[in-house]
Amino acid sequence: MTTPTTVTKSNGAVLEAAGVTMRFGGLTAVRAVDLTVAPGEIVGLIGPNGAGKTTFFNCLTGLYTPTEGTVSYKGTRLSHKPHLVTQTGVARTFQNIRLFANMTVLENVLVGRHTRTKEGLWSALLRGPGFKKAERGSEARAMELLEFTGLAAKRDHLARNLPYGEQRKLEIARALASEPGLLLLDEPTAGMNPQETRATQNLVLAIRDQGTAVLVIEHDMRFIFNLCDRVAVLVQGEKLIEGTAEVVQADERVIAAYLGTPFEGAPGDEEAAEVDAAEAHATAPRSAAPQPADAAPTEPAADGTASGTSAAPGTSAPPGTNSAPGTSTAPDENAPNGDAR
Length: 341
Ligand SMILES: Nc1ncnc2c1ncn2[C@@H]1O[C@H](COP(=O)(O)OP(=O)(O)O)[C@@H](O)[C@H]1O
Ligand SMILES: [Mg+2]
Prior knowledge:
By secondary structure, the chain is an alpha/beta fold. It is 35% helix and 17% strand. Strands 6-7-8-3-9-10 form a six-stranded mixed β-sheet, sandwiched between helices. The chain has a four-stranded antiparallel β-sheet with strand order 2-1-4-5, with helices on one face. The protein has one domain: Rossmann fold (3-Layer(aba) Sandwich), CATH 3.40.50. The longest helix is centred in the middle third of the chain and has 21 residues, at 129-149. The chain has helices spanning 53-60, 82-88, 105-112, 121-126, 129-149, 164-176, 194-209, 221-227, 245-249, 252-259, 269-287; strands spanning 15-24, 27-37, 42-46, 68-73, 76-77, 90-92, 182-186, 213-217, 230-235, 238-243. The structure holds adenosine-5'-diphosphate and magnesium ion. Residues 53-54, 95 line the site of magnesium ion.
């Protein structure tokens, strides 16, 4: 890759991702994805589980170096180092919450400000004298952000003791502490109740109104379609369609992608056809033999899996439902891990 901060033409966009491809060995998780976010926009990124949404975020924020493609923020090519990306003006939250579990709510936000103070992250984490001084200057702003996110009353609680929904809000407050021009939210309402989801929707609108553009991944379609100016749909790493809520909702391929119904020209169709053909060939002699109807046991499997759980990924969340497909975002799996990134 070239130098991290080459100035390119920005076309006025806050974010401009061009031809972003991410391969892991033989797997292409993200394939030639273009996406722009304009100032003042809230853009949604949806798609079935495993579509490559989080991987795409990781490419935008420097956690991964894309195999191909470029990412620019306000016309500046972004670095592949996460802390430099944050410093440039792009902040994020994580699908699997990453808070400093044993720090207080206020301290978590103060650590989020380290990119905006001359003290570094280690000084913030080790709470040296420089940080303590910077902390006093930052505290007023951190408290403003806690008011803004509705967490002010919890300022001295340990992050680990917050209910799940509040941990997600704290991640947002901490991300905002770096004063970003673009905020990336990865499933901000996963695990929230409907009331918390509604509050988060209002919070995102308020963030946008204060001048921060937002790119949000979410499975809750009501949340997405209420909130977003534009929605892009990823399926098997490729952008299937992008448009307003109306355009995306009316697109049969999107519904098919969620319901797992094949459609002509779907990404991965060719590979799927090859696999089908190979399987048909391999099973052909046996499939000629009659199969007794009672060959399979009717009771649930011993491991507790009920019949029907072998459905294609994404079938559990047709548009319009509030449930997250798959249970990979179950609260316990997302418990704060104190990950000191
Ligand atoms: N670090 C990694 N190494 C190998 N494969 C990965 C890695 N991260 C993600 N993948 C794969 O990339 C695909 C997309 O995953 P992900 O971006 O998490 O999807 P989504 O967020 O849309 O559910 C999946 O098949 C996943 O297993
Ligand atoms: Mg994800």
